[in-house]
């Protein structure tokens, strides 16, 4: 039963998916009707009205009750922009400020903004609002920042993205040329300097291409055997970082490879799927899992 619950969509995910479809229709010049959308998505009309309220900034209402996209925005988004915007619409508590001016800015700069979302779970970010606002400005203007982190002074930090991952905000930035992530909650005494830097396109691509916050240009390949009992879930969607199915075994299992930046990125996932997952390589990861299990049993 735990596996089934894990694969169920959250309310935020459902909102984001509906919003994406609506935005695509609107961007194509379609008219949206409440009753038709309610039937299409299998929800009641009240739910669709709430969706329209979320999209109020970009909607015009015609005489027959149809909603259309306002002329200022019609046709200006591509598919990636629409998906990104729908994510924002589906995770309201994730942002410290969700007023009209915020969404107006999102709609006009969505392809080149300081924010990135990875995953739909979220927490309230109001406590970090001052830091987020300052870092957003620094990212857009390519300004070097300074702050304290884990009781240590950090200087000459070059910020690239504010990344939301599994309920928390992180700053993706370089320090002494090395790409790192910093938990926003641990950043203190933030100061945006007047020093400017030139953003590296390779680093930006690394951040955008990674499906977690473990940013690194040097990856280690992990090879796993997945038993037939859970193979379906790994075939249906990616459950591991940079997952790739390399072979289907005769017994119905899978050989899966995963590219990780650090052992802690995948070891907890391996433990979660035990006893249905076996580490083939690297051997030190297998030994670490066995050692952790041994310590647990000893306690």
Keyphrases for this structure?
12 strands, 299 residues, 11 helices, four-stranded antiparallel β-sheet, alpha+beta
Overview of this structure, please?
A hairpin with a 5-residue loop joins strand 10 (244-248) and strand 11 (254-260). The protein has 299 residues and is α+β, with helices and mostly antiparallel strands. The longest helix is centred in the N-terminal third of the chain and has 17 residues, at 11-27. Strands 3, 4, 5, 6, 7 and 8 form a six-stranded mixed beta sheet that branches. A four-stranded antiparallel beta sheet has the order 10-11-9-12. A two-stranded antiparallel sheet has the order 1-2. The protein has eleven helices and twelve strands.
Task: Reconstruct the topology from this structure.
Layout: H1 2-7, H2 11-27, H3 34-41, H4 45-54, E1 59-61, E2 67-69, H5 79-89, H6 100-109, E3 115-118, H7 129-140, E4 143-149, E5 152-165, E6 168-175, E7 178-183, E8 187-196, H8 201-209, E9 220-226, H9 231-236, E10 244-248, E11 254-260, H10 267-273, E12 277-281, H11 283-298
Parallel strand pairs: 3-5
Antiparallel strand pairs: 1-2, 4-5, 4-8, 5-6, 6-7, 9-11, 9-12, 10-11
